[in-house]
Structure formats: C-alpha cells, structure tokens
C-alpha cells in the first residue's frame, strides 16, 4: 500500500519533534547551574560580599572589594626601625600576605594592618590592608566606592631610606592636589595615616 501524503507528513512531523526534544534535553544536561555563573552578577562599583567592588581580575569571577568607609583616620604602620623587609610587595594580590607579615612581626598596638586584620564587617572577617598597587586602583575608583577623605591613605607596602632602613610606608594621596604632583608618597612609618580595608572574593 502506497503511503498517502498525510501519512508521510505525520511521519516527518514525528521525527522532527523527536529531534527537537532530544536536542533540548542534551542542552539541559550540559548547561551549568545558574548559581555557578557569577561573572554577570557584579561590576565595579556594585555592593557585593560586604563592600564595594573596585577590581575584577582576568577570570571575571574574582577580584577585590573595599569597605564603604574608613577604618581609621590615623594609624601608624609599625616596625619603624626594621633593617630587613617585612612587607614590601607592591603588586595586586599581595595585600593579604603583607598584612599578615606586619601583624606577625610588628608589636605596636593598633597598627593599620592590625585594624584591618581584626575587622569584622558585614559578615566578613578576612579584610586586609591594600598594597600600593591595590590602593592605587582604589583611588582610581574612589568615586564609585565613596567615603574617602582628601588625605594620605596607608598601603601595606614599606620601602627603605638611603641608610637601608625600612623606615617608610608607601601612601597614596587621595586629595585633589597631591604634593609634588605624585600620588604615591613614601611617609615615615610613625606618621598616622587614614586606613581603608579591602578583601578578596
């Protein structure tokens, strides 16, 4: 018996539906759970995980968050007479290591690093003092983060003087007219500076 046009059409329709159903089921199997895709959930300036996002790394999934307000308007760095480097890393990603080194080696109370290390804010307790480059980034996005004063902020990065003593800390001037037109300034570790804590995510 020769199949009619109606029978042939029904057969093609059935095959087409089965192909679509199979393809959709495979897509569903391969699709990642929505909650694991976080790179579209935040951008610089967003409130996220206890603070404000000011840096997103190349993975687009991790970065740095700043507290929304200062933790101190006058804290020293500590270890002003050290002849060996304690925390001289400048790059992004080393703020936490610098902070831990300062806390473990400097005995002064209420140093900038200790204030950040002991901070518990908005459900997070893994805050640290930024490196010079992390602090420079924070300055760049200061208007999105907010709450800054027009003054010098402490980094966790130290530097030595001409005698080889690690007497200075690199600070970043958040004012509108930095001294000598340079925002990055070495300042004596005994000088109290403003402090803004950051954390990674």
Short summary of the structure?
With 201 residues, the protein is an alpha+beta fold.
Walk me through the structure.
The protein is of the alpha+beta class and 201 residues long. It contains five helices and nine strands. It has a four-stranded antiparallel sheet, with no helix packed on it. A hairpin with a 6-residue loop joins β2 (51-56) and β3 (63-66). The longest helix has 26 residues, at 5-30.
What characteristics describe this protein?
three-stranded antiparallel sheet, 201 residues, four-stranded antiparallel sheet, alpha+beta, 9 strands
Secondary structure elements and pairings:
Layout: H1 5-30, E1 47-48, E2 51-56, E3 63-66, E4 72-75, H2 95-105, H3 112-117, H4 132-140, H5 142-145, E5 152-159, E6 168-173, E7 184-188, E8 193-195, E9 198-200
Antiparallel strand pairs: 1-2, 2-3, 3-9, 4-8, 5-6, 6-7
